[in-house]
Amino acid sequence: MTRSDLVAELAERFGQLTHRDTEFAVKTILDAMSDALARGHRIEIRGFGSFSINRRPPRMGRNPRSGEPVLIPEKLVPHFKPGKALREAVDANVPVAPEPAELAAG
């Protein structure tokens, strides 16, 4: 689902909101979440999951062309951990894949 899909879904569900108002609301929420993460805060949405910042320590990498070692600096990256309700909802909707033996026999 893209941002525009989310806006369209919300505008359809809440007929009293215009498409422009819905777009503004989604943008405001996502901007607030981005700002909170940029300030180092944790975001928790009960039943959905939590967003936090993980630190990736500096490390030595290699230049793929020359093969020479390159220092890769420390990075702070966003991390999402799904909540229990989301994990269970996704797991409940996963179709069971046929076993390889069933594919060969069929």
UniProtKB/TrEMBL annotation:
**UniProt keyword Transcription, yes or no:** yes
Q: Name one Pfam family in it.
A: Bac_DNA_binding
Entry's SUPFAM superfamilies?
IHF-like DNA-binding proteins
Which SMART domains has this protein been placed in?
BHL
- What is stated as this protein's family in its record? Belongs to the bacterial histone-like protein family.
Q: Which NCBIfam families match?
A: hip (TIGR00988), PRK00199.1 (NF001222)
The protein depicted here goes by the name Integration host factor subunit beta
